[in-house]
Amino acid sequence: MTDDAAPPTRLDREIDQSKPSIARVYDYLLGGKDNYLVDQEIGDHFKVNLPGSVAIAFTSRQALIRGVRDMARAGMWQFIDFGSGLPTADNVHQVAKRYAADARVVYVDNDPIVLAHGRALLATDKNTTVIQADARDPKSIRDHPDVVRLIDFDQPVGVIFSSILHHFNDDEDPAAVVRFWNDQIPSGSHVLITHFRSGHNPETTAAEQKLQATFGRGRWRDTEEIRVLFGDLEVLEPDIVPSAQWRPDVAAGDAASVGSSGRELTVWEQLIVTGLARKP
């Protein structure tokens, strides 16, 4: 959708292309094509004016992949992915199905373009779906027919909040959203959170100001504020750490291995952290 010569689709005409989308900005930063000029302008601000900041998007994505892997290895075969964003390589259902062929996944996002592309991708997959909903309204999601159809809340569930809770301002009470789902899932379930972590430095301030000015949201929190989001859940090893250092797959030689290779993390790599918790 970044090809100016391509004719506009019906979806293009239905979407307000004058307003940037968080999902589409992430798509652009990750090298995707499902974005518009207004999204690219925001992404280019981070690329050009905050060099190195794109590492936040890449290391959080890699941590998500490893998180789904480890949840599936721990017995999770059903997942709810909040703020799922646009399809890319190694989506949650693809990673999960490597370990559980019958894995069930519900993707949740409030961007209509995510709904359209997700449904096209999943048209033949009866165990995976995408719904358009606002994560700040958890009850409507819990009662959604596709969630009722696919997710058995008597069995362990993997709940994913990857790079979404930091887009909730404090008055939107992200801890209450997580708590709602903690109350729905049974013992043995896992909750994954990837979140901006404040470095109390110019980089944090600059990035936060840009997101607030653009979207009216974007909140960097410190480690203890992020820990509060997990509520009474048991945070598993290695605790809440930079995403690049969270359970790195050194054998694969991916970007996650930087933390154990002896190289010091960049300031941007330190500004995104991951934690995985278990419901006792």
Describe what you observe in this structure.
It contains eleven helices and eight strands. By secondary structure, the chain is an alpha/beta fold. Strands 1, 2, 3, 4, 5, 6, 7 and 8 form an eight-stranded mixed sheet that branches. α5 (92-97) links the parallel β1 and β2 (104-109). α2 (22-29) crosses α3. The protein is globular and about 45 Å long. The N and C termini lie far apart (45 Å). Residues 1-8 and 255-261 have low confidence and may be disordered.
Short account of what is shown:
By secondary structure, the chain is α/β, with parallel strands linked by helices. Helix content is 37%, strand content 14%. The N terminus is likely disordered.
Identify the notable features of this structure and list them briefly.
alpha/beta, 11 helices, 14% strand, globular
Please tell me what the overall shape is: globular
Question: Could you spell the SSE succession in H and E letters?
Answer: HHHHEHEHEHHEHEHHEEE
In angstroms, what separates the terminal alpha carbons?
A: 45 Å
What is the count of helical runs? 11
* Biggest sheet features: 8 strands, mixed
Structural class: alpha/beta
